Amino acid sequence: MQREADLIEEVARVHGLDKLPTTLPARRSAVGRLTPSQRLRRRVEDLLRDRGLYECISYAFVSPRALDALRLGDEPVLELENPLSEEQSVMRPLLLPGLLDAARHNAAHGRPAVALFESAHVYRPGGSLDPPSDGSPAGATPALEGQHLAVLATEAVPGGWRTDPRPADFFSAKALLEAVLAVADVDWRVEEGGPPFLHPGRAARVLAGEHELGWLGELHPQAAVAWDLGGAVAGFELDVDALVALAAGEEPRYRDVTSFPAVLQDIAVGVPVEVSAAAAVDAIRSAAGELLASVELFDVYSGDQVGEAKKSLAFRLRFQAPDRTLTDEEVAERRAAIEAALSELGGQLRA
């Protein structure tokens, strides 16, 4: 016996299960509700359905060849001792293979334009799979079972009678990711990198603080060919359990809507091509302080006008104070601080 419930079961068995009275639980105890994880999962699933994505339900087993095609053959996986077939001999470590199978099935039947998602469990080794010598697992869990959410799309916007369809790409997948993480109300960012099955230069890691939530990007062309898919294939996959843990922080608080007007300014800065827009935004926010209500990137340009190995980033800045109307001097001071911070990144304001 390992738990309190084990002792209770033994007492009931010795006393006689047929002697226990049959009663209904009290109404107060019978009332239940969804857990935070269930609520968040339903909200993001509904959000993706509202945006026209179709939900998939795939097998929890994958083929080792599928993981090799995704360049994940060296990762530890849970292999079945008695699989139904070689194609279903490994517990899936991620949801992507099932979505790729669904996309290939649709393409083979004349429907190559798809936008799919799946919310389900993934499995990874969590310890030794050998049985303990004393015969009791003592609550040990050799397999780690987690909830993931994955999106895969070959089409971002379907065509109409006046417009052509727009294929999926990194930015269309990022737009869906932004909507999902906005529902969770989690501060997040992306950094260059990601799993080996993503296209170099079109891949990113999704981070929240020091926690890695998943990946975002376009599928590597070689991986797409392995599933007989042509054109760009984009998507993302998130660890929902990690997302729930981050979203379970402080309750959102009401923020008063100020009646004082905002000061809007647009700036364009030329920076080296290796400087990311995220790094520029971080520099702007750090320099501007609390008076900067928002900063938005609305244009990226590269060409002869900005010089070789440079690009132009255009930002819209909104300055606002909750208790007063800002003066020109206050805004100019913050603007000078922003220019100094951008210059440290090698940036220079454009006229």
Structural account:
There is one protein chain. This protein has 351 residues and is an alpha+beta fold. It is 31% helix and 28% strand. It contains 10 helices and 16 strands. Helix 3 runs antiparallel to helix 6 (170-184) and helix 9 (277-288) crosses helix 10. The model has no long low-confidence stretch (mean pLDDT 88).
Brief characterization of the structure:
The protein has 351 residues and is α+β, with helices and mostly antiparallel strands. The protein is 31% helix and 28% strand. Strand 10 (198-208) and strand 11 form a beta hairpin.
Treating each run of at least 4 consecutive H or I residues as one helix, how many helices? 10
Low-confidence runs (pLDDT<50, min 5 residues)?
none
Class by helix and strand content? alpha+beta
How would you sum up the global shape? globular
End-to-end separation: 76 Å
User: SSE string, helix = H, strand = E?
Assistant: HHHEEHEEHEEEEHEEEHEHEHEEHE
- Average pLDDT number: 88
List the helices and strands and how they pair.
Layout: H1 4-15, H2 27-30, H3 36-50, E1 54-55, E2 61-62, H4 64-69, E3 78-79, E4 90-91, H5 96-108, E5 115-125, E6 143-153, E7 155-157, E8 166-167, H6 170-184, E9 189-192, E10 198-208, E11 211-219, H7 221-226, E12 234-239, H8 240-247, E13 263-272, H9 277-288, E14 292-301, E15 310-319, H10 328-344, E16 348-349
Which short descriptors sum up this protein?
alpha+beta; seven-stranded mixed sheet
